[in-house]
Amino acid sequence: MPLAWLGVVPFFVFALMFLLLPTLFLIAGAFQDPDGHFTLQNLRDLLAPNIISAYWISIEISAASALGGAFFGALLAAAVVLNGLPGWLRPTLMTFSGVASNFAGLPLAFAFLATLGRMGLVTVLLSSLLGFNLYRTGFNILSFWGLTITYLYFQIPLMVLILTPALDGLKKEWREASQTLGATPWQYWRMIAFPVLWPSLLGTTLLLFANSFGAVATAYGLTGSTLNIVTILLYAQIRGDVLHNQNLGYALALGMIVITGLSNVAYIVLRTRSERWLK
Length: 279
Fold this sequence. Notes:
CATH topology: MetI-like fold
Organism: Lichenifustis flavocetrariae
Family: Belongs to the binding-protein-dependent transport system permease family. CysTW subfamily.
Number of strands: 0
Keywords: Cell membrane, Membrane, Transmembrane, Transmembrane helix, Transport
Protein name: ABC transporter permease subunit
InterPro entries: MetI-like, MetI-like_sf
């Protein structure tokens, strides 16, 4: 084996042990009963109303956080790349985005409870300084929108990190040529820049969807069992004392793999198309 391959051996070993083999184990378990016999009952149980509801709520939260993260992340990325802001702002934003995009799980859930909970910092400040009771408006950090806002904390920075290289790929010659031909800035964006960026925008939004769809620690730490989403239901089936049905949990995981896998495949296809334009 050439020495150059030795550097990637740890990657392949890691992917085999912690990605491929567990995935195959889940797929096999989804088609087995507790005694290890082949069955399709686990897949039939996925059609139960509470499971369909859990999948649907998870899809809604993932879609809302993906669209919100894509919109605000694209605005941030465009502001630091295209609008001539001070030079120090871009590396500062990129550094923060690199940290924030990986800040999730129980620490993030606690941070938002301490910030937007009933006795959170922002909630108390709004009430004491402005006389505005956030929770009287119907807002609840333990609800659909509360979890969506929490997800935006890592969705927006991830969008910034992925979209920035695509914005850098917009060639100055394209804008100059369009201006020479008499195009307005709106026509440049509508006919040139946006069509080139569209695959990157759509692909990154799909990646954000898959990113939030598989999140479990943040949702569990923030809402517990208050919100019926598929990751919490999966956790309850595999590790819970009441809903324990390990093989049904494997089937739930298989459904999640299919959904996130389709999102990632679509992202890779769109990214490949975008890279071809930006070369």
